[in-house]
C-alpha cells in the first residue's frame, strides 16, 4: 500500500485546514470563556482589595475615635522652649505657672595629679563609690595608671564611672567622669596599700584618694562639682532634683531643664484641655467614612446606556456592608444631649455623604466631652456608636475578614482557570492527533483505491475487442 507523507495527497483533501478548523471551533470559544472569567475574577479581586483598603482606613479612624486618651486630653503651651521642655499625662489639670530654672544638675568630674605613664603606681587596692554604690579594684605591684583605668572601666560592679587618661606637659592624669548627676551621686575614693592599710599621706595609690566631703584636702582635684538642678515655680516654690528631669514638680507634668534663666526671668506655661485633638479625631472619622462611601459607590456603579459595570456591581457582600455600616452610624445611642451624629453637627446630605457643622461640633467638644465619650465609646453595659462600628468593621477587615476571604476565594478561582486551560490543551492535543490519524488512514485508503482503479482501467483498455471511448 502507498504511504502518504503529506496529509491529503492521496485524497486531494486539505486535511490540515479541516483539522485546524475543527480545533479552532473548540479552542476559540473556550479561550473566550476563560478570558472573560479571568477578567471578571481579576476585576473583582482588585475591587475587593480597594474596598479593603478603604475599610482599613475607616477602622484606623474609628480606633482613634474610640481611644479614651482623646477625651479630656490636656495640652501644654510654653512662652519659650529655650530653657526646658514640658510633657503632660492624663493626671494634669488646667492651670498657668511661671517657671524659672535656677540651676542645672551636673555630674562630678575628678582629675589626678601627674604620673609617669609607664611607671607602677603602687601596690594595693582602691575602694571607689558613686553615691550608695561601691566597688573595689585590686592593683598589682607592677600596675600602671593605664591598668587602673582599664580595671575601673571593666569592673562589672562599676555603677557609672568612666575612666580615661589625659596626658599634658606634666605627665599622665587619671580623669574620672560620673554618668549620674546630682549631689547624691558624688565620687569617693579610698586607697589601701598591700597590707589593706588606708593610705593617708598621698603616696603610691594615695595619690588617687578623694573625699567629696573634704575636697580641699583630697589628692585628686574636682574639676566639675556635682550639683542638683533647681526649679522655682511662681517665684516662691523651690524644687531641687538630682537630675535635670522633674517628674513631680507639678502633678501630671514632666520638665526637662536645658538652660538657666537670668535672674528675675522666667517662662510661663499654660495647661489646658486639648479640644482640638478630639475634634480632629471626629473629623477624621467623617473624612474616612465619606471616603469609604465614595469607594463603595464607585465599585458598585452601573450605567446600562453607557455599558459601564463596575467591579462589584450587584455584589451582595458590598451591599450588605453598606447597609450594616449605615444602620450603625444612623442609630440613636442613649438619652444624653449627644446621642446621635446629628446632635453634634454631623448630617447626611442628598448624596449620602456626611456634612459637618464645625460650629456645632466645636461647641459640643468644648462643653461636654463626657457625653461625647459615652456616645462614641459607650459604657460597660452598652457600646457606643464608634465601638459598634468598630466591631462591625472587624468582621470585614483584616487578614481573616470577609473581604480578605473573598479575595482568597477569587484568587483560587483564577488559579483553577490555569488548571482548566492545561486540561483543555491536553484534550485538544489528543483530539488533534486522533483526527490526523483518521484522516491519514482515509487518505491512504483513497490513494490505494485510486491506484487500483487506474490499474483495472488500464487492463480493461488492453483487452481485445475493447474500444476506448476516447477513440
TrEMBL record:
UniProt domain Flagellar hook-associated protein 2 C-terminal: residue ranges: 226-450
Q: Name one Pfam family in it.
A: FliD_N
Location comes to:
Secreted; Bacterial flagellum
- Domain Flagellar hook-associated protein 2 N-terminal: from-to ranges: 11-108
Q: Is the Secreted keyword given for this protein?
A: yes
Q: Which residues form a coiled coil?
A: 407-434
Q: What does this protein do?
A: Required for morphogenesis and for the elongation of the flagellar filament by facilitating polymerization of the flagellin monomers at the tip of growing filament. Forms a capping structure, which prevents flagellin subunits (transported through the central channel of the flagellum) from leaking out without polymerization at the distal end.
Q: How does it assemble?
A: Homopentamer.
Name of the protein in its database record:
Flagellar hook-associated protein 2
Native species: Neiella holothuriorum
Its lineage opens with: Bacteria, Pseudomonadati, Pseudomonadota, Gammaproteobacteria, Alteromonadales
Gene that this sequence comes from: fliD
